[in-house]
Write a structure and sequence with these properties.
The complex is a heterodimer of chains A (220) and B (102).
Chain A lengths: L1 H7 L4 H20 L4 E2 L4 H14 L2 H6 L4 E2 L7 E2 L7 H10 L17 H14 L3 H11 L12 E2 L6 E2 L5 H11 L17 H4 L4 H7 L9
Chain B lengths: L1 E7 L11 E5 L14 H11 L9 E2 L2 E2 L3 E5 L2 E2 L15 E6 L5
Parallel strand pairs in B: 1-7
Antiparallel strand pairs in B: 1-2, 3-4, 5-6, 5-7
Classes of the chains: A mainly alpha (220), B mainly beta (102).
InterPro entries (chain A): CTU1_C (IPR032442), Ncs6/Tuc1/Ctu1 (IPR000541), Rossmann-like_a/b/a_fold (IPR014729), TilS/TtcA_N (IPR011063), tRNA_thiolation_TtcA_Ctu1 (IPR035107)
Protein name (chain A): Cytoplasmic tRNA 2-thiolation protein 1 isoform X2
Keywords (chain A): Transferase
Chain lengths: 220, 102
Amino acid sequence: MDDIVKMIGLKNNCTFCGVFRRQALDRGAALLKVDKLVTGHNADDIAETVLLNILRGDIARLSRCTSITTGEDGPIPRCKPFKYTYEKEIVMYAYFKKLDYFSTECIYSPNAYRGFAREFIKDLERLRPRAILDIIKSGEDFRIATTTKMPEQGTCERCGYISSQKWCKACVLLEGLNRGLPKMGIGRPRGVNGDHKKETKKPGPAVKSIESKQCGSLDF
Amino acid sequence: MQLTLEFGGGLELLCDSEKIHKVNVDLPNGAAADDDFTMKHLLSWVRTNLIKERPEMFMKGDTVRPGVLVLVNDCDWELSGQLDTTIEEKDVIVFISTLHGG
C-alpha cells in the first residue's frame, strides 16, 4: 500500500486499498471453497457508509449498503452479522472479556473522506445515541426511483469476475498503476477525454439521470 | 490523591506508549479546598500532564473526543454524570478509543 500511495498521492487511498483487499478476500474465499464470507462491519460502519453514499450520490451503493446479506445470487454471499451492534458495545465487550485486539489506525486514514462522516456520526451519537440505528433504518427504507438508471451486473472482460462496467474496478486500478496513470479509475467520468477511454464510454448513471430529469419531476 | 489511569484502543500512543499510569493529582490552584474533584478537573490535568502529542485525538473542547469511552471503576461515566462524576482516592479510570481506521 505504501508503494501505491507513493504513486497516487494521499488522496483516494481507500479506493485502492478497499478494492484490492476485497478482491483478495473474494479470491481467497473461492480458493477455500467457502459457502459464505462474513465480515465484522458494525452499526457505526453501516451508518457512516449510508451517509457517505448520500454525500457522494452513489445511488447503486446506497441501495445495497444496508442489506445484511449481499450477493445471494452469486457464488459466495457476504454477510454482516454485527450490523446492529454499536462499536461502543463491541469495545466494552472486548475490554471486559479481556480480549486481545489490535487497534492500530491505518496511517492514511486521516485523509479519508469517511473520516468526516465518522466525526459527524460520533457527534450525533453523543447528542442522541439512537441516531446510528435510525440512520440504518432510513437506509433500509430507501427506495430508488424506477426511472433512475442503475448499473447492470456483467462480467469483467479482463479477469472474468463480476463487474458492472466493461472492466472491473480492480483491473482498471491495476492497469492505471502499471501504466503510470494514477488517476485512472478515480473520480466521475466527465465526457470525451483522451486518456480515460474505458470509463467514459458509460457516464455515471446518477449524473446522467439527474441532468435529464425535468425540473420538478424528481420524486421524493 | 492517588489514581490509576489506563489508556487503550490506541490512546496509549499519545502518552509515550504507556498503557497504565499511576498518578498523584490535586485540585487546580483556582478551586476551593473542599471542592469535589471531578472528571472535568481530571481531564484538564491529563491533557496538561500526560498527553505528549496530538491532544485533539483525546479531547475536543472541555470533554473527551467523541468516540472515546470513559470507564470510572469499570462503570461507564455516562451513568455517573460524565464530566460531573466525582473522583475519589484509589479510583481507576480507563480511557478507550473506539475509533479505528480500516
